[in-house]
Amino acid sequence: MGQVLHKFHGKEWKKEQIRKISDKVYERITDQSGATLTFENLYISVLLVYNDINKRLPGPHFNPPSKEQVRSMMQECDFNLDGELDHEEFVEFIQLLTTDTLIVVSQGLIVTLVVAPTVAMATKKATEGVPGVGKVVQKLPNSIYASLVTLAVVWFQTSRDEV
Fold first, then answer.
1. Cross-strand partners of 37
2. Terminus-to-terminus CA distance in the chain, angstroms?
3. If we measure between CA atoms, which residue out of 46, 76, 55, 63 comes closest to residue 7?
4. Of 67, 57, 155, 68, whose CA–CA distance to 100 is shortest?
5. Is 81 left (phi over 0), alpha (psi -120 to 50) or beta?
6. ∠ at Cα 72 (68, 74), nearest 5°?
7. In the chain, % of residues over pLDDT 90
8. What gap in Å lies between CA 111 and CA 41, rounded to an integer?
9. Is 90:103 a contact under the CB 8 Å cutoff?
10. Which of residues 54 and 87 earns the better pLDDT score?
């Protein structure tokens, strides 16, 4: 239960995760190629970032942007106009790139944390009259029943994402 709840942190936690991923990828690429990122290295970095995001954040897997999208966003984030991104430009680039990703993750968490317990309480009332199951459901406290249904929804979401 603690591992599941650990994934349901706020916006700051997600930003922190994106920053950690960005820093790790930037260091990995610049250790091999130099202090700044050219377009080719930037695109490789974007692929690595999306790979890490798909591993770490709950919810659906996200496809990386096309080379054309990366090229146009690179121009927006290249503040010193040298055609390459330094560390801070790269972090800004990744934050901009992953904004939509974080919104989708947040929407999934809202569904899980708000809708699932509400549906659980509605189904509990409905299943109390079912022979055999009803007596067991009646004996479970509402909080435990809602938690079990929420965990089932989380399990279903994560198992569906792995397929």
1. 85
2. 22
3. 55
4. 57
5. left
6. 115
7. 18
8. 37
9. no
10. 87
d(CA 110, CA 116): 9
| 158 pLDDT above the threshold of 70 | no
Question: C-alpha angle with apex 126: 120 to 130, nearest 5 degrees?
Answer: 120
Residue 68 pLDDT grade (very low, low, confident, very high; cuts 50, 70, 90): very high
Res. 109: pLDDT tops 70:
no
Which tokens hold the place of 141? 């406290």
pLDDT tens digits, residue range 33-53? 888 899 999 999 999 988 887
Q: What is the token pair recorded at 76?
A: 């927006």
* Residues forming a β-bridge with 85: 37
Report the amino acid identity of residue 79.
F
CB–CB of 8/113 below 8 Å?
yes
CA distances to 66, 116, 135, 142, 145 from 129, in Å:
54, 21, 8, 16, 16
Length of the chain: 163
Contact in structure between 22 and 94 (CB atoms under 8 Å): yes
Tokens of 65: 């942007």
Distance CA 50, CA 40 (A): 16
